[in-house]
Amino acid sequence: MAVKSSLTNMVAVLGLTCLVCSALLGGAYALTKEPIQAAAAQKTTQAIAQVLPHFTEVDYNQEDGYYTAKDGENLVGYAIESSVMGFGGELKLLVGITPDGVVYNTAVLSHSETPGLGAKCTTDTRFMDQWRGFDPSVKKLAVTKDGGDVDAITASTITSRAYTQAVANALSVFALLNNMEDPDAFSGASVVKIEEGGQDNE
Amino acid sequence: MSKFKLVSDGLVKNNPTFVLLLGMCPTLATTTSAINGLSMGLATLFVLVLSNMAISAIAPVVPDKVHIPVYIVVIATFVTLLQFLMQAYTPSMYETLGLFIPLIVVNCIVLGRAEAFANKHGVGESALDGIGVGLGFTCSLTVLGLVREILGSGSAFGYNFIGGADGMLAFVMAPGAFLCLGYLMVLFNKYLKKN
Question: How distant is the Cα of A58 from the closest Cα of chain B, in angstroms?
């Protein structure tokens, strides 16, 4: 192996390699662009279908990060993206809210919580199911430890608080969408203080 | 060297994980479950076979002083290709493995095989070497992932067998990765490699 190096052959070989490789990738990009977009779109639709009742069409408001779902002419509800800092990093939720201001369901879009502890927010059915039909005008949006009505995940209070905060933020957005006078009073977002670095493990 | 030996060397004698201790970063980070380990191994296998073949084909005309940049460009091309394919056809797996897919570019197994084997051998032999080492990596990661999944989550390949109980969490997290890797390495070198 090993051809003796000279300026010309180094430039030629490196240039040619890059040219061939970029042409190859350009082609591959063009071929996979549509399937990639389709996969991303399908994932979004699935997430929305999980947090809202049956709908036929969805509009995305990119600026504020929410989806408006309609069944024909009727408004089914809003699916609002909401991200907060969890224990291990960003916790991103999709919160479905029906026009009467009740949470229909929630779904985790992405998270980096500890496996087996905070990451249970995607598998713990007891924790997840309490968000179905959560009515902020009846129940208090805070974990039980902070005097609210949300049952936290065992040993994952910080994650549960973050999750609750994310739902509260989504409800504030919903209130703004409906031009309510005091969005925070409606969702209880500013009532609950989130203490930084509590004594709990997570 | 016989074709069989080329493949089996990568599996046992030159096993990248348990003998050569290469590619430790993805090994420790992605083996939280058997499926994750298997996917990471297969992704590396894909890149390894293709880059070995391409590099063995172009090696005779690559000037000595630029051979590393040329190899990296070739490897990065295959990794990006793999990224496109995974994003398009296995988006959930792509999300699980996340950063570790692009990091295959700097995986020392891939560049190591290019430097140590592919640039001195023909395309066919290099492909077999890539298959052997890639399979060795895949098997090691799957076994490591399986052990960690059984101990840490009480399931195997996603099939839960302890009901609602919790596994030993430490094994899903980083300390468990080191412990399992260490013990598996001992067992591997004591029983398999000796024969």
Answer: 22
